[in-house]
Amino acid sequence: MNANLPINGxxxxxxxxxxxxxxxDAAAFGRISDRAIDAGVTGLFVLGTTGEGPSxxxxxxxxxxxxxxxxxxxxxxxxxxxxxxSTDDALRLADYSAEQGxxxxxxxxxxxxxxxxxxxxxxxERLIPRLPLPVYLxxxxxxxxxxxxxxxFAHLAQLPQVRGIxxxxxxxxxxxxxxALLPDTPILWGPEEILLEAMEAGATGGVNGGAxxxxxxxxxxxxxxxxxxxxxxxxxxxxxxxxxxxxYNAAGSPGFVFGIKCALEELGxxxxxxxxxLTIPSDAVRARIRVAxxxxxxxxxxx
Length: 303
Prior knowledge:
Blueprint: E1 9-10, E2 18-20, E3 23-24, H1 26-39, E4 44-46, H2 58-72, E5 78-82, H3 87-100, E6 104-107, H4 117-127, E7 135-139, H5 141-144, H6 150-156, E8 162-167, H7 172-181, E9 187-189, H8 195-200, E10 205-206, H9 215-227, H10 230-248, H11 255-266, H12 283-302
Parallel strand pairs: 1-10, 4-5, 5-6, 6-7, 7-8, 8-9, 9-10
Antiparallel strand pairs: 2-3
């Protein structure tokens, strides 16, 4: 197993900054990645939902993995997302990620067809032993429409390649049930506005999109929760919730993609272009996000 796995702490789901459709902005990608590492994150996750992985060509996916591994240079592990409907595409991308030096794979159930949990288990038991790296199971049913239920997590955790869970389901009751079934398994939580509550229910870290913007904030939030400093954790959690309300919610759906990219533009880190079929939000939306991100940045400077 990679010496840096399993990971806890904060692992940003990196955005994929673009200069044109399907063209990576390598300089911006480097700035965002280095900034996160310098802030003390414990890993980098590429090709996830925030990274618009399902919208990228296989060629661009490979470039993102390659560049991220080069940037990380062993400082933190790189987790490569496998959000693939095709098993063959998943295997090819997994092999390439291993060749480039990724530390783990983050695997969603296959999407589009609404399959049963029994079918999910059968699929995973066929695929996972063929993967070349440790695996985190990624639950995000709002997009895949196919969940990993807690009992499915528990069943698949018996496979030696499965080293953890990335849960973006948002259901704290199911999180607690997963923790009861798997008392020692790392669980990385997605919905950042309730990271405090999730860690109290058993999560061991966060994969939070806002860490592209303010990585120090999210690292400090994790550390406050982990150390038991609840007043500080609550104060920092309130700032994170404000990012959700004023940046993500300002941009429509999927607001976190639009909001993070527009906020990165205001911070001077990257352009706002999303991957097709998404388009840049209106000038009015971008103006609201600019005001919000300036206010939040000022609060962080003062606090």
